[in-house]
User: Fold this.
Amino acid sequence: MKKYIGFLLLVLLPFHAYSQQDLSADELFVKARTAAFDEKDYSKSIDLAKQALEKAPNYTDISVFLGRLYTWNKDTEAARGVFEELGKKDVQDEDYFIAYASLEYWNDDNTKAVAIADKGLSVHPKSEALWLLKARAYFADKNYEEAENAIKNLLTINPKNTEAINLAVRINDLIAKNAISINYNYSHFDKQFPDDWHIVSVGYKRVTSLGSVILRANYANKFAENGIQAELEAYPRLSDMFYLYVGGAYSNDVGIFPKYRTGVSLNANLPHSFEAEIGYRQLYFSNNIWMYTASVGKYYKNFWFNIRTYLTPDNKNISHSYTGTIRYYTKSAQDYFAFQIGTGISPEESRNNLLENETFKLKTFKVGGEYNFSVKRNLFSVGAMYFNQEYRPDVKGNQFDVTLGYTRKF
Assistant:
């Protein structure tokens, strides 16, 4: 039997080799793509691409694909050799410039990546992929002004480019070294409290080489009494993917504000325009309140979707708070409409002092919206929120909030 199988192999192998050699360049190209994308066998795909090029040495698409294969196979020098040969032939294909610029960007030669992208844009000025590569290369080099210019050009071509909006939001936080802001929040209660609440916050933000730092002073008039709080927040960057939120606040006016407020979160900018956060918040009035938070966000075209939860454990159970947010970006990362809906009280809200009496265990519903727009380096915001809260068992009241904000970047 073994002799019979061996005989068959000897007979069939020449036919197999002949049929492989008899395939056209296009057919070999299809096989190479199948080997790369379906089988994840880059070595096999490289061999097939080389065979295809022997039949059609000037087939640019196959040469570019071969360069990509070497890139994915981490053979940087071979990939660079393929692209340099195409450059000598003065190839003008958009995919060639994208593949070559990507190689240099992934290997941290951002200056060369920008140069290649610029050469490609001179031929293909509306290439979204090249504008995005150029913005990413500048962003990686911390040249945020040029990165912002590249993103603005891309969004002019396609305002719904998901990855561009995602990067634009990240650039927006870093583009100006300094910013001052003032915000006002007004709260009216129909039953729960006889007096309206007023909160004014004044802040200063400084972008450093390690990340952003924000110093803020908060004044509040609640229960017809005044209070002041000092607050400090920082967003240190750990890598291109990860950054931290670290925050703390102090006030002598306990009841209007918590005496201490702290928080730490790990944030991640994930592939496919996702982002995530996990961390804790702590409030101290006369006792500690520990709250654990997690959120996930996703950019899609002009939209940003986010859902966040706060979990507050005690001796008997775990209290839950959930908030869903949708943003619709218009002309830039600073211009958007937002809609929010949720349950429970979060420690970030101006009414977090209500947590002291454990009213967070009662039923709360909230819904509201916000509009942010910019005029050059001036940012304006206006928002409104409605709360329906069970402040005593089976007794509900309504709260209406209006928020106004202004930020000046310089």
